[in-house]
Amino acid sequence: DLRRRLHLRRHDEFGELAATFDQMLARLEAAFKRQTQFTADASHELRTPLTIIDLELNRALTQLSTPEEYRQVLEQLQAENEQMTTIVNSLLLLARADTGQITLQLEELDLSDLTLASVERLLPLAQQSQVSLATGELPELLVNGDPHYLSRMLMNLIENAIKYTSGVGTHVRVELSCKDEHWGVVRVQDDGPGIDDEHLPFLFDRFYRVDKARTRSTHRLADGSEVKEEPGGTGLGLAIVQWIVHAHNGEIIVESETGKGSVFEVRLPLLNQEQEATPKNDRSM
Ligand code: ADP
């Protein structure tokens, strides 16, 4: 009987071990697949501006002669260079984040100050895009955060809302509130095109764009050939936003309805004011 029981136990343990091993393999495989996809996407995104630069340079060398023609090509090259720089900088940031090489410079911050500053910086873009950009009440919400990264998070979300909403009579609204006394909540709300349910699970993936065809513009070259080009966007903005939120122990959720608009809501843990107000020396009491 003992022998049988021992045999059964060993059988169970083997089964468990095999299952764990299977799970580990599946996770490794998924990670490897993601990595391969990521490399393919990154190469693709960089190849487009490189192709345009190559074609434009050839055109300048073989067909152009007037200063005005050269100036136009140089401007195009500058724009492509900027696009590549943005992509490479975003990729570097994500790579450093992945490998734990970024140390946040944490300090006591008021979310309302950061929000107001971001909104003010984006007012010209909103005006140019004919979007009315406004804030609700901005209560004081103290968090322990890195001002550089939290500003970047706010800028990315508000800029997206403006970029995808643009048009006369459209609105972007930024609101701050407190939830359950522990969470500072930032809501960036727009009445733009909204995002279909099927896309929501992938929105924060690197290089994911909802409708590539719609957000791309065609670059027509002098020889009649065409290159599809993204208008400034990299598909990395929300991946960076998500990293920043998680690095601050926060959460981000998105609610959206096609044709009605989107809301991106970030929750960040509020500073425990009682603890902070008590100087360390006095704590022993
Ligand atoms: P991008 O550089 O393309 O803006 P993001 O990572 O910031 O990249 O956003 C990913 C995709 O999510 C965008 O390409 C867009 O399709 C969609 N998106 C983001 N914000 C909004 C919004 N406020 N309204 C509609 N679609 C949005």
UniProtKB/TrEMBL annotation:
Part of the intact protein present: 226 to 510 of 532
Protein name: histidine kinase
A GO cellular component annotation in the UniProt record: plasma membrane
Domain HAMP, first and last residues per copy: 1-33
Main location: membrane
Lineage: Bacteria, Bacillati, Chloroflexota, Ktedonobacteria, Ktedonobacterales
Domain Histidine kinase as annotated: residue spans: 41-272
Subcellular location: Membrane
GO molecular function, one term: phosphorelay sensor kinase activity
